[in-house]
Amino acid sequence: xxxxxxxxxLTQELKHSEIEVKGWVRTFRANRFIALNDGSxxxxxxCVVDFESMNEVVxxxxxxxxxxxxxxxxxxxxxxxxxxxxQVSSIEILGDADPEEVSKTILQPKRHSLEFLREQAHLRTxxxxxxxxxxxxxxxxxxxxxxxxxxxxxxxxxxxVTGSDAEGAGEMFRVTTLDAxxxxxxxxxxxxxxxxxxxxxxxxxxxxxxxxxxxxxALGKVYTFGPTFRAENSNTSRHLAEFWMIEPEVAFMxxxxxxxxxxxxxxxxxxxxxEHNKEDLAFLEQRLEQEDKSKPQxxxxxxxxxxxxxxxxxxxxxxxxxxxxxxxxxxxxxxxxKKFKYIIDKWGADLQSEHxxxxxxxxxxxxxxxxxxxxxxxxxxxxxxxxGKTVRAMDILFPGIGEIVGGxxxxxxxxxxxxxxxxxxxxxxxxxWYLDLRKYGTAVHSGFGLGFERLxxxxxxxxxxRDVIPYPRTPxxxxx
Length: 480
Ligand code: ATP
Ligand code: MN
Description:
Structural class: alpha+beta
Strand content: 15-25%
Number of domains: 2
Bound molecules: adenosine-5'-triphosphate, manganese (II) ion
Strand order of the largest sheet: 7-11-12-17-16-15-14-13
CATH class of the largest domain: Alpha Beta
Helix content: 25-40%
Largest sheet: 8 strands, mixed
Shape: globular
């Protein structure tokens, strides 16, 4: 007989058959009821032990946290709360868990704070909350690959160690094998990186976009989905030093095509989890409602979790130019009454998350795509509009979070790009290969970036980015 998963057993109609299951004991009640979980789903399966006929030594070893191998019959449950249970005929303890030791850990079955769970990140996935989050994370990542695969995109692996530091997306981590205590120096007394491993200064990538552009201009439609690194010393609930990013890039696609793609993509992946992760989403929705009870009204989630996800799938994203958005914000109530932390007074201002949320949650009441931003607040590679002051950029704004996607049509004209780089003091030597793209068969092309953890936060309702990645890396923390 082969071992079945708990998820499989719980869907079985055929009762009274002999089964085998392996998992970890969540609780053992009244010397009789084992709540067994194997990670295959949120729910436990109840395994009923006949303690009178059970070896006493084995019985004592059935404790919270222990790994067990159970054989028995799958029968209709006598009790409430589950349809089937296992009538245990034999139980083998695969791995003990000493109750004394367990009592010091988060395995102990009671409410633990998210902070305490973070300290035991190696065990936290044995809790309902974290197993649900991590199953959703996996599901979202599968949905992303599936979307691109269905739509003719190639998966491209951008390098993680980069020699170009011109992306300008954020502070970088240096990659070096030089001896920090005694580095080789040049004649000016500066560190001589020509003696370093790669013969030059290298860093961990902050974005795969520029490399993805080169691939789009050969393969047509590509996307990256890989780790990116930013040494930003901002200890916020939305920033990690190591996070995963999805960056599609498409040749011959303009900004309107880019918005269409991003909207269709977001709707697909969110529909996917609504359909495939119902149980986990229902649990997380409940968890969020519970958590919100202890928060002031204005910090609570704008709507229940699954309603928020359906809100994305069921509404057309409202497309609004930056200029229109500024007008709306300028004459809005919170701006006039100075309720915004940052007051919007003139065109050119960078929007904060409070403004983005106002547009989505109060004003338009649907997801919003803002486009045609002032060139001054956007990156050098974005295509300049005919007005000479705005660029073909777009940001997608979601409820509860603000910006979730940022993208643009890229500047495909060599002379305009060169001028822009000169203006910003970006040396052409660093990006000669990027400029080459504009020399050999240049064409309109566009793409966007989605921070994967921001998406997982949105889809799970978790409020801290440290709780949606297995082992978060943040300032002063690289544990595990
Ligand atoms: P933010 O203003 O939130 O710092 P950004 O403007 O620096 O974001 P981009 O450079 O546009 O972000 O990066 C693309 C996407 O990557 C963002 O939309 C966001 O989802 C995500 N992202 C950026 N920085 C981080 C980070 N430190 N941790 C996790 N995700 C991030
Ligand atoms: Mn940033």
